[in-house]
Amino acid sequence: MDDLTRLPATDPTDLFRVRDSLYGPELVGAAVIGLDFFTHLAHSPADAQTLCRELSMAERPADVMLTYFCALGLLENRSESFHVTDRAREFLVRDSPWFLGPFYASFAERPVARSLLEVLRTGKPSVWASNKARKPWAEAMEDDAFAQQFTAIMDARGLYLGPAMGRELDLGAHHRVLDIGGGSGIYACCLVAAHPHLRATVLEKPPVDRVTRQCVSRRGYSDRVDVVTGDMFAAPLPSGFDVHLWSNALHDWGAATVKSLLAKSFAALPPGGMVVIHDAHVNREKNGPLAVAAYSVFLMASTEGKCYSIGEMDSMSAEIGFRNFRYRPTAVDHSVITARKPSS
């Protein structure tokens, strides 16, 4: 059995950030060259809704871009009105003598920058970079080969993130965990490794469910972690679990879908049950951390979602009926959010 409570001797955070910030520089180039965004905003500070209308941008990617530029120190949000900072005014506004537009000019021809402009305008995700069939990510996951590849990517990350998540959670009063859209099952396995009294079930749709069973068995956790085949969108979530885990799953979807999925958890959990949201979260002010804001650009481009802020998750869970909202950082810019279904 794999020891999923053991940590490596060194810290891989920067290695994760290299990959997760992949599209951040491209978004700066797309904004400078494709939109002349900072020149526009320097002359006409505006709220997000106005900017979307004036620059023909969709709400979700515009929100991600504004958060990222705030985290970079290029914008300030003053009572919901965005203003360029002194640095952005000097280097990214066209009529400045220090304008860096020519320095970024080559981005006009870069495929990723062009793709990001399309995402900003349509709100629709681009193709997953490694998907040779050029299908949207969610549809590509129905292909065996791509599902194997993507699940392996997430498993590699989970092997480091999972133990940190397990240590941070107090699950002494709980017994059965439903890991929804749990991929390889790495997070379910890490939870039962950290809390020996727990049993876990991973809910996955074909063909990922077959990959999940193989991964759980290979790690030696089949006696405590099982897999059920199901689609979290197609039916109510199964009952009989007092913890629902959403690990790096909600960030793939738009806000309305996220709220709908959390509502399914609320309906299926017993009174006193807990929802656990393990993900990378933007702060309440939506101006950082920079690493999370950069990762959100990656998600904006390849999925229907983004990194949600702590405040957004608090608001959605409270509207559904969850209480006792709590946020705790874990590892590699990730955190766990917990909330409970009231006992009465």
Strand content: 5-15%
Whole-number total of structural domains? 2
Number of strands: 9
Query: Overall pLDDT, averaged?
Result: 94
Fraction of residues in helix:
40-55%
Unreliable segments of 5+ consecutive residues: 128-134
Please provide a written account of the structure.
- Residues 128-134 have low confidence and may be disordered.
- The protein has 344 residues and is of the alpha/beta class.
- It has two domains: 13-124, Arc Repressor Mutant, subunit A (Orthogonal Bundle), CATH 1.10.10; 138-284 and 305-340, Rossmann fold (3-Layer(aba) Sandwich), CATH 3.40.50.150.
- The protein has 15 helices and nine strands.
- Helix content is 46%, strand content 14%.
- A seven-stranded mixed beta sheet has the order 5-4-3-6-7-9-8, with helices on both faces.
Task: Detail the topology: elements first, then pairings.
Elements: H1 13-20, H2 24-35, H3 37-43, H4 48-55, H5 59-71, E1 75-78, E2 81-84, H6 86-91, H7 101-104, H8 111-122, H9 137-140, H10 144-168, E3 176-180, H11 186-194, E4 199-204, H12 208-219, E5 225-229, E6 243-247, H13 255-268, E7 274-279, H14 290-302, H15 310-320, E8 323-329, E9 335-340
Parallel strand pairs: 3-4, 3-6, 4-5, 6-7
Antiparallel strand pairs: 1-2, 7-9, 8-9
